[in-house]
Design goal:
By secondary structure, the protein is an alpha+beta fold. The chain has one domain. It is built from two helices and five strands; from the N terminus they run E-E-E-H-E-E-H. The strands form two sheets. Strands 1-2-3 form a three-stranded antiparallel beta sheet. The protein is elongated.
Length: about 90
């Protein structure tokens, strides 16, 4: 599975809620990729690929991917908190 952001966060704002993020899930038979949101995957643990294959998202796999997203968000927050802040002086520079 590959996790990707649905849209970039707005400047100065980190979105900690991952429900709107998307996860690409490959079909084990035809290798087509289905894109599902985290919110959708929390409610549904399986779907049918266009080739007719039932694709199951196991809780351990899903939990592992969500943990990776949460770790990435935490790391980004730490990086931003540790970086020097640039303040606008209003001088137009």
């Amino acid at each position: 599975m590959r996790v990707r952001a649905q849209c970039p966060p707005r400047e100065g704002r980190i979105v900690s809620d991952v429900d709107g993020e998307t996860i690409e899930i490959p079909c084990p038979k035809c290798h087509a990729t289905a894109v599902k949101t985290v919110a959708w995957l929390k409610k549904h643990k399986q779907f049918v690929c266009g080739c007719g294959t039932l694709v199951r998202v196991t809780p351990s796999t899903f939990d592992h991917e969500i943990a990776k997203v949460a770790q990435a968000v935490d790391q980004l927050k730490r990086t931003i908190d540790a970086s020097p802040r640039r303040h606008s002086s209003g001088s137009g520079r």
